[in-house]
Design goal:
set domain protein methyltransferase, domain 2, three-stranded antiparallel beta sheet, binds S-adenosylmethionine, transferase
């Protein structure tokens, strides 16, 4: 049962950012804009300032007209609102543009409520079910993503003045701005060669095409792809005490991702009315700060413990520092192993298949992977007359078995590294990367470099561990 592999894989982000109305103050706080692309972005920003500011302001006015308190002034029983919408933000490592973001308008303390939004302002499946435009197209059994995608497309078609969500839809990015890998063309995808992200991208694209076929009379593939780019990159799964809903939550969805953040979004469910003739109050979406934030600091939430591959596939960015980064490596069974049938039966009884994929992390071996490999590498002599199913694989079976496990792991990682083309020559001055490479190229290079690092670290750790085991055995002999 020799194993072979076939082979998924963000960085912390603090921010440098600008906000139209306080750009000078922020520029000073942020230490300037370092990259050429960031400078070019600022020039474009300056040109587009008036229109960008107008769309932001329309959104804020719309939210305020619906009772969402976003004013920098105190109101009746309301403190000044703590967040402000920034037109452009940058991640801290290479100054990559991260689009709009939310900043602390004033110092924020841990656990403070940052935003509170009534549910009826969100785009949800319930809203799609109530939409007269979608009658006959969306019903209770429609998938939640599909229902919201159709709602988004139909509302975008109505235009900013006619749609209830017009001011919100007007600030949503284009597919190209989000740039998830499933929207890349073949020449861009070439930069993902060797990465499991490529197979995930192709599979996602095929799924999107197949699902669009059913709705091709209602929208073009471009509209469909845009709606799903929006949903995958900003829909939030809201969990309350009794329900769970997927929603596009205006304003809250301007919060950018940091894998180090633990700010949280909750669904505060409204109590049932006391009398049946009373109106039912609306549920609310509330965001709380995970820590204190300084004035003008960007506020983050975590989109989940996502690998760079998942981030690039769904959100269009990868991070240099990402504690949740991993590379999926597949281990397969050798059919000429004398214990093949027994191992296969045991693997199936444990809910596994003969070809299993496990995430490889930079700093640890996943327990499930070790258990699977111990079982897969066990030999008749290590079984000492027992059956494959009789052994406990949660601990070391024997030194020989553990050495085989580490060797298999190292070989699988080496094979995965060989599948990447040789790394591109380094740009002489890293500041020039933004001039010579497109954003997609830079993101693909980030992804591949981060995956290679993980695989190489795993090989080094496996060799180190093998040497330790050999040394302990020699001492004991
Ligand atoms: C939920 S939206 C956040 C608001 C978004 N920046 C905007 O302008 O609408 C998610 C998108 O923001 C960007 N983003 C979020 N966090 C990021 C990060 N740490 N680095 C780079 N881009 C990020 C990506 O384009 C992602 O698809």
């Amino acid at each position: 049962f020799v194993l072979r592999e076939s082979s998924s894989s963000g960085g912390g982000v603090t921010s440098r950012m600008s906000e139209d109305s306080w750009s000078a103050e922020l520029r000073q706080a942020s230490g300037g804009f370092e990259t050429e692309e960031a400078r070019a972005f600022m020039r474009r920003q300056a040109k587009g300032d008036a229109s960008v500011r107008a769309t932001n302001e329309r959104l804020i006015e719309w939210l305020q007209s619906k009772g969402v308190w976003l004013s920098e002034l105190s109101g009746w029983n309301e403190p000044p609102h703590s967040l402000a919408l920034a037109t452009s933000t940058f991640d801290d490592v290479e100054g990559e543009d991260a689009g709009r973001g939310l900043l602390a308008r004033r110092a924020v303390v841990q656990d403070m409520e940052l935003v509170r939004m009534p549910r009826y302002l969100c785009m949800t499946k319930d809203a799609a079910l109530e939409s007269p435009t979608l009658k006959g197209l969306v019903n209770v059994s429609t998938n939640e993503y599909v229902a919201i995608a159709l709602l988004l497309i139909s509302e975008a078609e109505k235009g900013i003045l006619s749609s209830f969500w017009g001011p919100y839809i007007a600030v949503l990015p284009t597919t190209e701005e989000i740039s998830p890998t499933f929207s890349w063309d073949e020449s861009d995808l070439a930069d993902l060669e060797g990465s499991p992200c490529l197979a995930a991208t192709r599979s996602m694209r095929a799924k999107l095409r197949a699902e669009h076929a059913e709705f091709s009379h209602h929208c073009s593939f471009d509209q469909w792809e845009w709606a799903f780019s929006i949903l995958f990159s900003r829909a939030i799964r809201l969990t309350g005490p009794t329900k769970e809903i997927l929603a596009l939550v205006p304003y809250v969805d301007f919060i950018n991702h940091s894998p180090f953040s633990s700010s949280y979004v909750t669904l505060a469910e409204a109590p049932e009315p006391l009398f049946f003739w009373d109106d039912k109050p609306d549920d609310e979406i509330v965001v709380y700060a995970d820590r204190s934030y300084r004035k003008f600091e960007q506020v983050f939430i975590s989109y989940g413990p996502k690998s760079n591959s998942d981030l690039l596939l769904l959100y269009g960015f990868a991070l240099d520092r990402n504690p949740f980064n991993s590379v999926a490596v597949q281990f397969g069974a050798a059919t000429d192993d004398p214990l093949y049938d027994e191992k296969l039966a045991f693997a199936i009884s444990a809910g596994r298949s003969p070809n299993e994929t496990f995430p490889i992390y930079a700093d640890r071996f996943a327990d499930e992977m070790l258990q699977y490999l111990r079982m897969s590498c066990v030999t008749p002599s290590q079984l000492k007359g027992r059956h494959v199913r009789d052994l406990d694989y949660s601990t070391i079976v024997s030194v020989d078995n553990e050495l085989a496990v580490l060797d298999t792991l190292a070989q699988a990682c080496e094979a995965a590294i060989e599948r990447y083309p040789p790394p591109p020559p380094p740009v002489p001055n890293p500041r020039d990367r933004n001039i010579f490479l497109t954003r997609k190229q830079r993101m693909a290079q980030r992804l591949v470099a981060s995956e290679r690092r993980i695989l190489q670290r795993t090989i080094d750790a496996a060799i180190r561990k093998s040497n330790e085991l050999e040394a302990t055995r020699a001492l004991a002999a």
